[in-house]
# Entry
Amino acid sequence: MGYFTDEELQSLRIETMILHVVSDEDFEVQQVRPVEYADFFLDRIKDTDAAAVFEFNEDSTTKRHLEEIATGAESFETGAQELSRLFSLLHDGTSRAGAFFVFELRCDDEHTRLYSLIKYDYQQVIEQSGAGGANLLRMIMQAFVAEKRAIQKSAIARVTGGVAGAAVSAKDRMAPGIEIADYFARFLQIKRTRSDEELTRTVRNLLRATLDEIRQHLPDRDVARAFRRAQDGLRDREFISGEVIGEVVVAAAEAQGNEVVMADIQRRLRRKLSSAKLDGLSFPPDRTVLRRPPLRRVATTEGVVVLYPDDADRAIVQRDRSADGSETITIRTAHVTEDRLVREGSRASH
# Structure
């Protein structure tokens, strides 16, 4: 689940739609068209579904038009034409020509309207725009099948009881990670609400929780070691996504080829990604969040030296101080991996 709820996905349907050509040429207003290939386009809309990391500015023109369409203050055709005109005006010369769709969606909740906006790169739209509308839509559908990556920009918004929710799902294939192009942000009039640092911290917590749940599948049941391996795996990636998180957890568990364990991991991750609102997102890791924690060295008057990661959970290392200044250090481990004598000459370095 990304932006759409499970209940919405089960009953989602296209109520009406409109399509405009966007290019360097003069904008030509089009009329609402019959909903054709509904199942096909609904699948493409679901392909754009991603958790919201943006929200509308209070004075967003796009937000206002969606609210007026939802309440009937203006017709879908009029409002969608104005939205398409605004998008076309902001669509700069460096962007590829194509088609701009506006879809109004319904679900079982009669008080909710959902809107999908999609910019689709398709040069033949310009070359064949004189063809009949049905033929044009058929050509676009065929091109969608051939190249799904031609969906360049997309946004999903929800209006409930005539009021648009602040949260907006937006994706831009032409921008790195989770960012969107300036002109697309100006068109939607939105701002980002979750930073890469916040998202990375969320993923870090998700990793630890997942590995703790699958402790029985880990080598030596060592959660701390698997967690370090998973963190290292994420830190070296260009972008973090649900797929990448699954890969590093499977690698940390050394579960490649074990279909039962891999399926268990993926099931747990799907639930956690949905709960953490990370579905459909791809973003660069904040490497300061994923850096290895410093080691804490504790030496006692009795000559005992303890070395452990500074962020070790209390379930692993627990320190209890008494009123007289003495201290009890408890270390709980699933398995001791090293137990040997240290030569006298090397003791100073430990």
